[in-house]
Amino acid sequence: QLQFAESGGGLVQPGGSLRLTCVASGSAFGLYTIAWYRQAPGNQREAVAALTRSRMITYADSVKGRFTISRDNAKSTAYLQMDSLKPEDTAVYYCQAYFGETPNNFGAWGQGTQVTVSS
Question: Comparing C-alpha atoms, which of 86, 3, 103, 1 is closest to residue 51?
Fold first, then answer.
């Protein structure tokens, strides 16, 4: 299974942008579906976006039109471009990987990267 190192979070004003990066270690990165999750204080972890090996993309309704997921298989890296950020996007963001289109058999979670949207 893959291991993940997320980065790129920070403090941003509402309406601003951030680009998160997830570098995976392990083999066969290109065969996995890569997904971004987030967890806000007091909330359960939720799926934000997923990108399958065949380039099918899904987004949570709350981020559609604002977030863009992408991947570079040659670099074993995934990205989450976040635009028009809102205070409710504040959370720790994590990446994960699984085979197929349905989340399953998660590996260990990385440390995540904190995103804070506040004026």
Answer: 103
